[in-house]
Amino acid sequence: MGSRLTELLGARHVSGYSASRLAAQIRALILDGRLTVGERLPSERALAVELQRSRSTVTRAYDILDAEGYVDRIHGGGTRVTLPHSYLAPAPIASETAIDMSIASMDSTPGLYDATVRSLPRLAALRGSSGYELQGLAELREAVARRFTERGAATSADEIVITAGAMHALNLVLTTVGRRGDRVLVEQPTFPHAIEALRRHGYRTQPTPVDENGWDPGHLTGVLLSARPQAAYLIPDFHNPTGATMTNAERDLVAATARSAGTLLIVDETTAELDIDRGWSPAPMASFSPSVITIGSMSKLAWGGLRIGWIRADRRLVGRLLALRSSYDLGTALLEQCIAAELLADLPSLKAHVRARLSAGRSAVADGLAAIGGLRMPSTPGGLSAWVDLGAPISTALSLAAREQQLILPPGPRFTTGGVLERRMRIPISYPPAQAADAMARLRVAWEHVSQSDRGALGDLPRSAVV
Fold first, then answer.
1. Where are the beta strands (DSSP E) in 212-292?
2. pLDDT tens digits, residue range 152-175?
3. In 3D, which of 346, 276, 274, 240 has the Cα closest to residue 106?
4. Rounded CA gap, 313 and 135, in Å?
5. Kind and range of the H or E element at 334?
6. β partners of residue 275
7. pTM given for the model
8. What CATH number has the domain bearing residue 434?
9. Residue 165's domain is classified under what CATH number?
């Protein structure tokens, strides 16, 4: 069996390549995130045999990559993927006319106001209490637990902790389950603020690739078994930013492998309910293993300003979470909890609004990309965004050109642990159709500017990928 690099390259396609062109193909795999930073590449001899090329050609290709900073060659330690630089986010734009697509979220559900009014008697009934609810209101915890049970993971209210949003939940979990220097497996790409949280807590990240077609189960389970990370942070439902959903078979495999490796699975379900027309419903990852830690949020279903999230964990871990939480936080605001309980009481209406809104936004983005010419929107059956292949490593250049048009659209490297995925760009589908159409019109101007000024990057691409 050949190496993963040979599989990604396609031995038949590179059989006649020169050393420089072979190096360019490997470089593209690195920048696209399909080869992850730290991953070990085959030896020169082994790769030459697999590709049926001379060893001198492979050696020269590795030399080119080494000189450019894309691999690190250590005597006796093999050749490993690295990067010549890291991505630095540009400064924000201060303008009322700017469209900020760095945030993939929607404005509030139409039912928010009425839910707030209906929640006031609930709040009034709590005035005789201390007002501190470390674990969260029992009524809201029961509603969240009931939804887990409906989806296939039997859950009780005492396995739920209510938090001030999903990021609050993630930070509380990271503080509780590990320590600085621990290794954590993360998807590449993934939610940028999760990467920042992991780094702030001192974790070392180990990436595994995912795209709109899904995960590489062999790579993911291989990393779990070889690196045995303390934890793994995964977004298996409408993955942010690719929109992929992990199959039940893959969930079962990942959960079983994590148990064998002693790895805690931290599953982010913030986007789990954002279905447009997927056509099937997976079981929660928690249904495949009792040790899975799940975090969720109301921010995508209802409104980002409603700072309500939750953690689902076994009772023993809930006790540890609450013991730690009391040292810096004494509970989530009661009014928000009362509003969330009202909203969850009519979840079908809430999801119907989200489905209609995302469907309209998806259509506007698809039409806008079609007008640009050559850019094809991948299948996006739900979630917050489309993970668009630009056809060339120009994501940062396109992002900078878009800023000239007052459009804030982060490049692909923003969603990675090491500045890769320059061929990709996350385009949210969560904006109102008119605003999305305006954003795509601005993106078209930026694309034309980049395509005119960077013929070198675009010239070798098929016509279908170029304006």
1. 214-215, 231-234, 264-268
2. 999 999 999 999 999 999 999 999
3. 274
4. 12
5. helix 334-344
6. 382
7. 0.87
8. 3.90.1150.10
9. 3.40.640.10
